[in-house]
């Protein structure tokens, strides 16, 4: 069935409607198929070397590079990643989502539960998932012709896989002088050569793919927010320290309990918040009830 689009408020967005459009694909013709494919692709995301599953992965990365001769660090972000990923080839350096996903699946399918699925059939199923959704805007039906719909079950895994090629190209351009990790489209990058600076990093990143545009954030006084951490570089011993970071515009609302999604994920969010160093669910009887629901 067609689903109504809603907006997730984003104060930094340009235009009259400062929000991110969400298509809650909870009851579309391909919902069950996209959920099944997403489950299978998730099994292969450890084949994306730069992929961060969570903040713990990021903290381990920082610990592993302790003591290296760090000259600088920054974060890169793709402007409107989901909406910019092309479904058709644009040029030699900008392949389609289908081509990238097919190649990734072909290389690694032996390690997931779809090992016997032909590459052609996999691509056809992905196409079906991305093109069969219908959304309602002012009670008029629309289909998405390009990009990934935020709300489609497959979109996060496909975005991670598409960005993998850019991770590889960035590392190839700078060799062993660059180390990076990425959460969807947020890249934390560290360099260990005096010949590298933020300008050439941004220039190289924006030369890799015609469809994607990167922005860069540099540390202030060797401090930079990334994910849920505030990262500080201690230059005396070339190590990073972290502390909890919450965006100034954070509303305190993460996910509605009655939203479409696995109960296990909702409980995981509450459990994580219990462990954070500020008053969380443990002080709220209602949240304790939800944890045990």
From TrEMBL:
Residue intervals of the Reverse transcriptase domain: 1-235
Keyword Transmembrane helix: no
Record has Glycoprotein as a keyword: no
Record GO terms (molecular function): RNA-directed DNA polymerase activity
Entry keyword set: Nucleotidyltransferase, RNA-directed DNA polymerase, Transferase
Pfam families: RVT_1
PROSITE patterns the record matches: RT_POL
Cross-referenced PANTHER family: REVERSE TRANSCRIPTASE, REVERSE TRANSCRIPTASE DOMAIN-CONTAINING PROTEIN
Name used for this protein in its record: Putative reverse transcriptase
Organism encoding this protein: Stichopus japonicus
């Amino acid at each position: 069935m067609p689903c109504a689009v809603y907006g997730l408020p984003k104060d930094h967005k340009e235009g009259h409607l400062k929000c991110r459009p969400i298509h809650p694909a909870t009851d579309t013709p391909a919902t069950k198929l996209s959920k099944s494919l997403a489950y299978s692709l998730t099994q292969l995301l450890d084949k994306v070397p730069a992929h961060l599953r969570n903040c713990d992965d990021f903290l381990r990365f920082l610990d592993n590079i302790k003591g290296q001769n760090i000259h600088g660090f920054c974060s890169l972000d793709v402007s409107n990643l989901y909406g910019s990923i092309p479904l058709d080839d644009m040029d030699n350096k900008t392949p389609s989502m289908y081509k990238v996903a097919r190649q990734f699946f072909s290389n690694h399918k032996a390690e997931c539960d779809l090992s016997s699925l032909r590459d052609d059939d996999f691509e056809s199923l992905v196409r079906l998932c991305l093109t069969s959704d219908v959304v309602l805007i002012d009670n008029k039906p629309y289909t998405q012709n390009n990009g990934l719909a935020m709300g489609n079950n497959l979109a996060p895994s496909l975005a991670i896989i598409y960005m993998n090629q850019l991770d590889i190209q960035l590392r190839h351009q700078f060799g062993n002088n660059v180390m990076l990790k990425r959460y969807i489209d947020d890249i934390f990058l560290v360099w260990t050569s005096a010949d590298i600076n933020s300008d050439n990093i941004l220039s190289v990143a924006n030369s890799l793919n015609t469809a994607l545009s990167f922005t860069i954030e540099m540390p202030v006084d060797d401090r930079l927010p990334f994910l849920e951490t505030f990262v500080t570089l201690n230059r005396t011993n070339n190590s990073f320290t972290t502390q909890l970071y919450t965006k100034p515009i954070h509303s305190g609302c993460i996910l509605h309990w009655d939203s479409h999604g696995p109960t296990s994920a909702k409980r995981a969010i509450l459990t994580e918040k219990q462990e954070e160093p500020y008053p969380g669910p443990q002080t709220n009887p209602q949240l304790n009830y939800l944890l045990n629901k």
